[in-house]
Specification:
- With 283 residues, the chain is α/β, with parallel strands linked by helices.
- It folds into 2 domains: 2-175, HUPs (Rossmann fold, 3-Layer(aba) Sandwich), CATH 3.40.50.620; 188-274, Pantoate--beta-alanine Ligase, Chain: A,domain 2 (2-Layer Sandwich).
- Helices cover 40% and strands 20% of the residues.
- The chain contains 11 helices and 9 strands.
- The strands form 2 sheets. It has a 6-stranded parallel β-sheet with strand order 1-4-3-2-5-6, sandwiched between helices. A 3-stranded antiparallel β-sheet has the order 7-8-9, with helices on one face.
- α7 crosses α8 (153-165) and α10 packs antiparallel against α11.
- The longest helix is centred in the middle third of the chain and has 16 residues, at 126-141.
Length: 283
């Protein structure tokens, strides 16, 4: 397994593979890897001859410096995991490599109608930072496929839209959310939870399942279902940011005429901000 910190050395390796007619899959991460990340790596290995994983905590997508500074960085452990799972290349650029002229004057990409809903409302500039760094990575790596997790559904939607509208050549592939035995979605931020909170956090997924069941019964309005779910979260000790029922194709608000739905939630428990979602197909 190779580790590259510079764009030029990574691209030299990619060029060699292309000369050998090898296909390439790319898994971008911010490190602190867990089984959810490794499932994306396994999906990448199924698709391509060679796999590149990036580890980069992108400062451009953090609106809170304290959150950026506190984000867990576990490079040595991450490298061991990737070596054990037959990753071919790990790309670990610094912020200076990714943003050589500094972030204040860096060209950014903004995908419309993302900052006005869901996570965009409470994280100003976050999705511009995500779109920018992902576009940079896709241009640097020039992979055949890039794999992203479905747990970050709004992020996945944004990346799919950006890749389509900018005519990027890399095909975006999604990987399903991996969960703990109690249903909690795997996330690097779960380590902010105490053992008691980790058990309690499983209620988040149970409420999503309850909302889905109520939608399928076709009795109550979406507004009522959402309001009661938010109240349930509060009663359970979560500080809920949102629980919304949206259309999968554009994340606009859904109504009873829509058939392909996604239920999304963001809530804080202790020091952790947790997000999750499940889809609901009424077709």
């Amino acid at each position: 397994m190779h580790q590259f910190e510079q764009i030029s050395t990574l691209q030299t390796q990619v060029k060699k593979w292309r000369q050998q007619n090898k296909t390439i899959a790319f898994v971008p991460t911010m490190g602190n890897l867990h089984l959810g990340h490794l499932s994306l790596l396994e999906k990448a290995k199924q698709l391509a001859d060679k796999v590149i994983v990036s580890i980069f905590v992108n400062p451009l997508q953090f609106d809170d410096k304290a959150d950026l500074n506190a984000y867990p960085r576990t490079l040595d452990a991450d490298m061991t995991l990737l070596l054990d799972h037959d990753c071919d290349v790990v790309f670990t650029p610094s912020a200076n490599v990714m943003y050589p002229n500094g972030m204040d004057v860096h060209t950014t990409i903004s995908v419309p109608n993302m900052d006005d809903k869901l996570c965009g409302l409470n994280r100003p500039g976050h999705f511009d930072g995500v779109a920018t760094v992902v576009a940079k990575f896709l241009n640097i790596v020039q992979a055949d496929w890039a794999i992203f997790g479905e747990k970050d559904y709004q992020q996945l939607s944004l990346i799919n839209r950006m890749a389509t509208e900018l005519n990027l050549s890399t095909q975006i592939v999604s990987g399903p959310t991996l969960r703990e035995d109690n249903g909690l979605a795997m996330s690097s931020r779960n380590q902010y939870l105490t053992s008691e909170q980790r058990s309690h956090a499983a209620h988040l997924y149970r409420i999503l399942q309850d909302v889905k069941a109520r939608i399928e019964l076709s009795v109550d309005s979406f507004d009522l279902i959402q309001q009661q779910a938010m109240s349930a979260l509060t009663e359970l000790g979560f500080v809920a940011e949102y629980l919304d029922i949206r259309r999968t194709e554009d994340l606009d608000r859904a109504d009873r005429q829509d058939k392909s739905l996604v239920i999304l939630v963001a809530a804080r428990l202790g020091k952790a901000r947790l997000i999750d979602n499940i889809t609901c197909d009424l077709a």
